[in-house]
Automatic annotation (TrEMBL):
<dbReference type="GO" id="GO:0005634">
    <property type="term" value="C:nucleus"/>
</dbReference>
<feature type="region of interest" description="Disordered">
    <location>
        <begin position="32"/>
        <end position="69"/>
    </location>
</feature>
<feature type="transmembrane region" description="Helical">
    <location>
        <begin position="12"/>
        <end position="29"/>
    </location>
</feature>
<protein>
    <recommendedName>
        <fullName>BZIP domain-containing protein</fullName>
    </recommendedName>
</protein>
<dbReference type="InterPro" id="IPR004827">
    <property type="entry name" value="bZIP"/>
</dbReference>
<dbReference type="InterPro" id="IPR045314">
    <property type="entry name" value="bZIP_plant_GBF1"/>
</dbReference>
<dbReference type="GO" id="GO:0000976">
    <property type="term" value="F:transcription cis-regulatory region binding"/>
</dbReference>
<dbReference type="GO" id="GO:0046982">
    <property type="term" value="F:protein heterodimerization activity"/>
</dbReference>
<keyword id="KW-0812">Transmembrane</keyword>
<keyword id="KW-0472">Membrane</keyword>
<dbReference type="Pfam" id="PF00170">
    <property type="entry name" value="bZIP_1"/>
</dbReference>
<dbReference type="GO" id="GO:0003700">
    <property type="term" value="F:DNA-binding transcription factor activity"/>
</dbReference>
<feature type="compositionally biased region" description="Basic and acidic residues">
    <location>
        <begin position="38"/>
        <end position="48"/>
    </location>
</feature>
<keyword id="KW-0805">Transcription regulation</keyword>
<keyword id="KW-0539">Nucleus</keyword>
<dbReference type="InterPro" id="IPR046347">
    <property type="entry name" value="bZIP_sf"/>
</dbReference>
<dbReference type="GO" id="GO:0045893">
    <property type="term" value="P:positive regulation of DNA-templated transcription"/>
</dbReference>
């Protein structure tokens, strides 16, 4: 038994398939177009859909423009803050350098004050010895307070220090 299909039947089957596919395609493509032409509700829906699409596109465009503007504003703000930050860092550096200079100067002055106090004490002791030996000279040697033993009692009168805002540069 032979299962060979004659060539003319294959050709007919192929032709039928092509015709059916063409008919199916034309039916689906033309149906919405013909129904929108004949049905005013369908045309109204298409018009609303088109308007909504246009409105959505415009809204998206505005949203992108707003986002771009916000990004530019943030970049500008960031660069301004970076400049301000570097200015503050420079001012802090200068103030630290001035503080170190002042502290060094204070240390030198404290050492000098201690040295002078020791020298004055030794001179006062010498005067007291001379007076005790009966040299005939009346010596009035004031007692010098040791600022390290009683730092809250200064031997000098307290003079208020007045400063203006021009003295401090930040």
């Amino acid at each position: 038994m032979s299962y060979a299909i004659p060539m003319h039947r294959i050709h007919i089957l192929h032709s039928f398939s092509v015709v059916f596919l063409y008919w199916f395609y034309m039916a689906t493509v033309q149906k919405p177009a013909s129904s929108s032409d004949s049905d005013p509700r369908s045309a109204n829906i298409d018009d609303k859909k088109r308007k909504r699409m246009m409105s959505n596109r415009e809204s998206a465009r505005r949203s992108r423009a707003k986002k771009q503007k916000r990004l530019e504003d943030l970049v500008n703000e960031m660069s301004a803050l970076q400049r301000e930050n570097s200015q503050f860092a420079e001012k802090i550096k200068l103030a630290t350098e001035r503080f170190i200079e002042m502290e060094s100067s204070n240390n030198v002055l404290r050492a000098r004050e201690t040295e002078l106090t020791d020298r004055l004490n030794s001179l006062n002791m010498l005067l007291l010895r001379l007076e005790g030996e009966g040299s005939g000279y009346a010596v009035d040697a004031p007692e010098i307070a040791d600022p390290l033993m009683q730092p809250w009692q200064t031997p000098f009168p307290i003079i208020p220090i007045m400063a203006s805002s021009d003295a401090i540069d930040f």
